[in-house]
Design goal:
Blueprint lengths: L11 H9 L4 E2 H11 L8 H14 L2 E4 L8 E4 L1 H25 L5
Antiparallel strand pairs: 1-3, 2-3
């Protein structure tokens, strides 16, 4: 996963997965959330999703939710994950602010 907390940039997929997990969700629900919120622009395959979830678990940005005894594993964002998502939102706001300053009315 190419996410660099030090540099402040997350991949778009990682950012959307973190956003999806402000509410506990299982894998398929995460895939649906990302597709719906991006109007189909991003579609996650199972391999991509579960690779990303494993990386996020290792970074402790997400954690399992519930007892884990069911067939579907659910995940939820951790306080550390929320801090990372918040920092990404601030980075994106600064980026768009700079772009709007430079581009003026041509930005849209």
């Amino acid at each position: 996963m190419r996410d660099h907390v030090k540099g402040g940039a997350l991949t778009e997929v990682t950012f959307f997965i973190l956003l999806s997990l402000y509410t506990p969700r299982h894998g398929y629900a995460i895939m649906q959330f990302v597709e719906e919120e991006t109007q189909g622009r991003l579609e996650l395959g199972a391999g991509t999703l579960y690779g990303a979830l494993n990386a996020l678990l290792e970074k402790r940005w997400i954690e399992p939710h519930g007892d884990g005894n069911g067939r579907k594993k659910s995940y939820v964002i951790t306080p550390q994950g929320k801090a990372v998502a918040r920092a990404e939102l601030l980075r994106l706001r600064a980026l768009t602010c700079t772009a709007e300053k430079i581009m003026g009315g041509d930005s849209l």
